[in-house]
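ARCHIVE RECORD
Type: protein–small molecule complex
Small molecule: alpha-L-arabinofuranose
Source of inputs: curated submission
Record status: active
Notes field left blank by submitter.
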Amino acid sequence: MIPLTSRKSKFASIVVLGPIILFANLLVFAQDKVQLSVDISKPGPKVDRNIFGQFAEHLGYGVYEGIWVGPDSKIPNTRGIRNDVVAALKALKVPNVRWPGGCFADEYHWRKGIGTRAVTLNPNWGGVVEPNTFGTHEFMDFIDQIGSQAYLSVNVGSGTPQEAAEWLEYLTAIQPTTLVKERAANGHPAPYKIPLLGIGNESWDCGGNMTAEYYLRQLTIYSRFVRNFDPAQQGKNQMQKIAVGPGGGEARWTEWTDTIMKAWQKRQWSWDMQGLSMHHYTVINWENKFASVGFGEKEYAQILKATLEMEDLVTKHSAIMDKYDPQKKISLVVDEWGSWYAPSPGSNPGFLVQQNSIRDAVLAALNLNIFARHADRVRGANIAQMINVLQAMIMTDKEKMVLTPTYHVFKMYVPFQDATFIPVTLNAGTYTNSDITLPRVDAIAAKDTSGKLWLSLTNVDPNNAVEIEVSLTGINANSATGETLTAPKVDSINTFDAPNAVTPKPASVKVQGGKVSIKLEPKSVTVISIS
Ligand code: AHR
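STRUCTURE (tokenized, with ligand):
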């Protein structure tokens, strides 16, 4: 790639050296126009909307302050849940919210969060007091307000199958049991919908340091006894049970996936699961994490290289799953993913507060694209975490709220929810920074339920724009429109004082003779629709 600056200096010499150099320059520009082909007649699987899931753990300001301010707060709220956050999340059409953890889930005892609340501790995250004011009913109210669905994680590490079974009876049963009457007395006579249930969290680590074999025993017990009792949540609407899966690509993790999947293939009638989770964060050095802001191009390139490891992990664990489940009945659910940087200076290190820059927007798009390309197996994912924690959508400070660049990517990707994946081919070349070389452009396409074609294009190169020419088979392009998210610097962020520094703008796209041309700004994510 010839940088734009050197191209300009070559133009200056045209006058002197004449037509030969002009021709050479035209060739450079011709090569620079990247050809992208989309064949709509070869549709792939559905891009499950659940890959756009969120994660809200009792951690730092994720729940308290981020969601819950209490009914007496001066911050506008509905039954204690902040209205600004609800409105922002509604626009994302969040398909599911994973709660209450994370590591917190394996120390969570649900009865402390209903009726009269018990004040406990949160030993995982700063050792702070956990007031339990945000409990089962408040969570269900929250997901109802944002129009989402529940993905509950039950406590396997320090709980019992009985405790988890009773939680599900409390939530879902319809007969007049003591627990159902208690639910009604607490304000919700009707059963709650629980479409997704995680059986433990990172049981190989904070969830109890279990071996794969030990966890497998727990899984089979919990799977047997933790039932959804609601008649409306059976058959094709049955609750999906998601087992703890791997946390990396090393031998230890491949053995874990192998152990669980092999047992599932040989299972008896008395237990089952529908999903296997996987966790993978973008971190380069756990002991000395990268800064989330105030970094340069080198760190931009290093983090984006690291994030592409997701492709290898998904491929590796999907291949193991294929061995035991060639029909792909079990979903791979990447229910914790995203960037994990050093805590923001001055913040409580146990609260995992970090900034969110255009680098994170690019990172989010690259990961969502990986999940979409593996839509036959990856049918769920939850970015960590929704508000004020790690790669958040939203940051709050008392009454103030700001939407992050990652929020904007999730909003731009809404049309991909449940759309049909359409393969694309392109050869956009590479972007290089010192010893790091990455694909310059990443792209996915999908057709929504109304037949409209959507393209997402990410220009990883932070310095050079890219011209894309799209050729379409199976659809006539009459018009195209879209949005692009870019920023002046690799670490540009939105702040409470400048909340719209990184915000989507209309994309530069035109249609001529059935061909669509798009200009991708440096370090940008662009989503367009073609009809
Ligand atoms: O998202 C923060 C933590 O990361 C979660 O609690 C845990 O599951 C993971 O290790």
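CURATOR ANNOTATION: Residues 309-324 form the longest helix (16 residues).
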